[in-house]
Amino acid sequence: MIWLLLVSLVWAFSFGLIKGRLAGVDPALVALVRVALACAVFLPAFRPRGLRPRDVVALTGIGAVQFGLMYVCYNAAFQTSLKAYEVAALTIFTPIFVALFDGAWARRWSAGSLGAAALAVLGAGVIVIDKPLAAVSWPGVALVQGSNIAFALGQIAWRRWRAGGPAVREAEVFALPYFGAVLATLPFAAPALGALPALTTSHWTTLAYLGVIASGGCFFLWNFGATRTTPASLAVANNIKIPLSVACSIWVFGESGDARRLLIGGLAIVGAGWLAEWTSRRGR
């Protein structure tokens, strides 16, 4: 769980950076550059020994969905009228998707896991639902939910592959998921490739941070941690970034928000984490 907490803290700063420093840059191009940089980070460590052809296909496919399709939808949401903290907030349903996908894969659902995921969603909702839904950009909502589904499915697929796959080190094969993400984002970004020379130093600095650290390092650590915790705790962990991101948007990037809601919702997410751990211990 410590890896998931660390990654959530780093991601908390990413929402405001995308909205504030990459405004006007094609979202698919942003996605492509991020995953290409992430792939470049892990390419020197790539050691395919021990991988079967089906493992190569599986890892490439996981990355295409979890990182590629997720980023295409996620970055496009920032081009709508959504604020940075609203994009962060609309990821609140990811825990439900994680719990549902895990249950579907195992062909059984845990009431405790679903309850913990629901409480995490409720806590995140308390933080952010403070205006009529009619005022929300519905195209942006749909894009973020597509991003949530892709990210949740990728996490569970990675856990399943890791449990039944060959005994390899994650760092030595993680270039493959990022390569899959490059393949998935390239068709969407191709029309905007000509805009690369026009990107400013500020754009490239932000992209370097997002690609090397927020994507390259953090997605690896997230999946690394995902295989070392229970599905219920993993589901809840997907919403830890919500209070952290909203806090950063309010106090670092100067956007509006409700600190009281942030406190109440944050406590609910902590409670969801406790319920997830209790459910897992009881199951064992």
Topology:
Elements: H1 2-11, H2 14-21, H3 27-42, H4 53-77, H5 84-89, H6 94-106, H7 111-128, H8 138-164, H9 170-173, H10 175-189, H11 201-226, H12 231-237, H13 241-251, H14 259-283
Helix pairs in contact: 1-11, 2-11, 3-4, 3-10, 3-11, 4-8, 4-10, 6-7, 6-8, 6-12, 7-12, 7-14, 12-14, 13-14
Walk me through what this model shows.
- The protein has 284 residues and is an all-alpha fold.
- The protein has one domain.
- It is built from 14 helices and no strands.
- Helix 4 crosses helix 10, helix 6 packs antiparallel against helix 12 and helix 7 runs antiparallel to helix 14.
- The longest helix has 27 residues.
Structural class: mainly alpha
Number of DSSP helical runs: 14
Strand content: under 5%
Number of domains: 1
Terminus-to-terminus distance: 18 Å
Q: Runs with pLDDT <50, length 5+?
A: none
Overall geometric form: globular
Say how many strands there are: 0
| Helical amount | over 70%
The profile of the biggest β sheet is:
none
